[in-house]
């Protein structure tokens, strides 16, 4: 009889478990599968946070067109404000001085080539490029400079940091190469000239010594 009671209890336990699983709407296999997939769902945000920028890198022409317009003396500085990040009227005046100094220094016209374009390590939405500048100045026909560009209204513009660096270089260069004003000659003194001092007169002759008396 004791054996019959154990068998009855075992059957009852099995029935209770089956009813509980049926009420929750899943089987033991489904429960195991759902618990095994939970860690993979938790790791999803990590992969999304390391995703690259959604857009492609700009073409070299998209960047060099910005520089060509900035260096064009026929375009006033007020029309170049959309080419520099955070530009204002003070920036417009500085850009006019920049193109004037470039023209007077014999650097215009300039051509540009953008190489090694990559996302900026300081701002992931900006790009860096090594720009090769070819000028009309025979003393410095070609030079390279790293430049940063930022997105603006579906295009690109020179970053504020790079623009300030270029304008500072132009300002320091023009101040060192500008000719210094020559000093005016010292005016001649006016009035009656003072006569030059004369030398000492001849020494007086010694008086004759008295003759001895004998």
UniProtKB/TrEMBL annotation:
<feature type="region of interest" description="Disordered">
    <location>
        <begin position="28"/>
        <end position="58"/>
    </location>
</feature>
<dbReference type="Pfam" id="PF26580">
    <property type="entry name" value="Mtb12_C"/>
</dbReference>
<feature type="compositionally biased region" description="Low complexity">
    <location>
        <begin position="33"/>
        <end position="50"/>
    </location>
</feature>
<feature type="compositionally biased region" description="Low complexity">
    <location>
        <begin position="172"/>
        <end position="181"/>
    </location>
</feature>
<dbReference type="InterPro" id="IPR058644">
    <property type="entry name" value="Mtb12-like_C"/>
</dbReference>
<feature type="domain" description="Low molecular weight antigen MTB12-like C-terminal">
    <location>
        <begin position="56"/>
        <end position="173"/>
    </location>
</feature>
<comment type="similarity">
    <text>Belongs to the MTB12 family.</text>
</comment>
<feature type="signal peptide">
    <location>
        <begin position="1"/>
        <end position="22"/>
    </location>
</feature>
<keyword id="KW-0732">Signal</keyword>
<feature type="region of interest" description="Disordered">
    <location>
        <begin position="167"/>
        <end position="214"/>
    </location>
</feature>
<feature type="compositionally biased region" description="Pro residues">
    <location>
        <begin position="182"/>
        <end position="214"/>
    </location>
</feature>
<protein>
    <recommendedName>
        <fullName>Low molecular weight antigen MTB12-like C-terminal domain-containing protein</fullName>
    </recommendedName>
</protein>
């Amino acid at each position: 009889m004791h054996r019959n009671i154990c068998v009855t209890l075992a059957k009852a336990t099995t029935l209770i478990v089956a009813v509980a699983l049926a009420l929750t709407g899943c089987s033991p296999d489904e429960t195991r599968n759902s618990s095994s997939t939970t860690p993979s769902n938790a790791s999803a945000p990590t992969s999304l946070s390391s995703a690259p920028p959604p857009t492609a890198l700009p073409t070299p022409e998209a960047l060099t067109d910005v520089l060509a317009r900035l260096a064009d003396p026929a375009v006033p500085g007020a029309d170049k404000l959309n080419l520099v990040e955070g530009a204002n009227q003070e920036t417009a005046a500085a850009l006019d001085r920049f193109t004037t100094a470039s023209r007077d220094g014999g650097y215009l016209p300039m051509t540009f080539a953008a190489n090694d374009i990559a996302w900026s390590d300081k701002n992931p939405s900006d790009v860096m490029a090594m720009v090769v500048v070819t000028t009309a100045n025979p003393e410095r026909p070609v030079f390279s400079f790293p430049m940063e560009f930022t997105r603006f209204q579906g295009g690109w513009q020179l970053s504020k940091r790079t623009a300030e660096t270029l304008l500072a270089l132009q300002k320091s260069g023009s101040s060192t190469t500008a000719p210094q004003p020559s000093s005016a000659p010292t005016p001649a003194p006016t009035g009656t000239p003072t006569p030059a001092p004369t030398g000492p007169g001849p020494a007086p002759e010694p008086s004759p010594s008295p003759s001895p008396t004998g």
